Amino acid sequence: MKRCFVTVAFILGLLSFSLLLFISFFDINAHRGFISQQIEQLSGYQVNVESIDSHLFFDSSVSLSGLSLTINNLQVLYVDKVKVNITKLDLWQRQLKLGSVQLNGLRISGDTAAFVNTTDLNITDLKTVEKSNSVQQTLDAKIQQKLAWQRFTIGRLSVNDLTIDMTHAGQRVTLDGADFRSENLQIIADHQLVKTPFSGNLKLQAREFTAQPTSREMLRVKNLQLTGSFNLKNVQANLYLKAGSLNLTLGKEELALQNTELAASLNQNKVSITKLSSKIFSGELQLQADALFLIKPLSAPFLSVQQLTVQLLEIKNMNVVIPAMFNDSGGLKNNKPRFPINNFVLKELIVENVNVRSDNSTIPLIIKNLNAALIDVVLLQNKQLKGLAEETKEAGSFVLQFDYLQWMESTIEQFDISGKLSKNDRSVLLLKKLFIK
After folding, report:
1. Is the peptide bond before 301 cis (omega within 30 degrees of 0)?
2. Tens digit of pLDDT for each residue in 139-175?
3. How far apart are CA 339 and CA 305, in angstroms?
4. How does pLDDT run across 341-361, given as a tens digit for each residue?
5. 368 assigned to some structural domain
6. pTM score
7. How far apart are CA 226 and CA 173, in angstroms?
8. What is the C-alpha to C-alpha distance for residues 291 and 273, in angstroms, rounded to an integer?
9. Residue 350: inside a domain, yes or no?
10. In b/e form, how buried is each residue of 83-108, taking b as 16+ CB within 10 angstroms?
11. Distance between CA atoms of residues 354 and 43, nearest Å
12. For residue 426, what are the domain limits?
């Protein structure tokens, strides 16, 4: 019996040593072609890897160099180097947990239509694919498929030197020199792809971000920093954004913001902007606000703001120019807003040293050194503009001061007035005589 036990132990030791030698000297690069072929058969995409470096026996990691994804002979994705660290691999329970995934030199380019594999949807007519929302249909079809893995998570995902140049239906988005970080990502749960991770943290830094919806509209952000955390299951999120410059182009008009900072949070149906500051029109803008909203996915509009409360809006040292091309043409009157506001309350507005000049002949206005304040003003109530209060005790207060004002043929200098926003307030009645004819 003892001899049998020793023999079995010797055989197991020999098998373990043989397995150790196999893992140590196994050259996975010799099988790169087979691996790429299997991936192409499963996904329909051409995947090539220049080299694979396996350290599974030493530190449970695998490194790939020169990873590329090609669709219809067009390279849409390329990664200089990928390193994956495996924390847990349970083949019996079909669970995989990656401690970290690092991508260096990631470049994504092309049109979103290139990512559509028509064989997944059994669609042979390419025109039908183009007319339908084929990209979303493909993603939904893949998500609904039952996968072999029961669970797949990534502890930390990091991307260095990220470059994106994507187009979709005439729209273009570019991202240059970006670094991306995200933690606690859930990819597969209960044998199905997760559309959106339930919770996690993200960090993005980019030299430049550009979005171009049309040939006449463009948003360009430089020196972008974005950090945030989210828990979609509980509908909670925190966001901090900082941008060196932000330029919005609408036709011939351009709006430029410098040194913009935004700190915001989401809790259920409440959005709070704890800080929004920016330099605009050579001046300074500060904003603090809260909003209660309601989402109705199957109705139009899908989002409505039930209550918007601006705690503080501060405008200082601005030179505002009303452009000559500004024209409503009845568009705002005929078109309903996409995101209607039911109630809008302005708690405090402060205006200091603002100059206004109009280049539009329909708005003949010039104001120099404008200083003003509004306190506790209800602007909208039940989607209707709120007029002046009937009672003085229910009215908000205002202060108005300027050095020079020219409106049409009237000119006023060194003006200073304050009062309550009620119908019978003497200051309000005086303003009506001066400006409403």
Report:
1. yes
2. 555 545 567 778 888 888 899 999 999 888 778 889 9
3. 7
4. 889 999 999 999 999 998 888
5. yes
6. 0.71
7. 17
8. 9
9. yes
10. bbbeeeeeeeeeebebebbbbebbbe
11. 59
12. 271-437
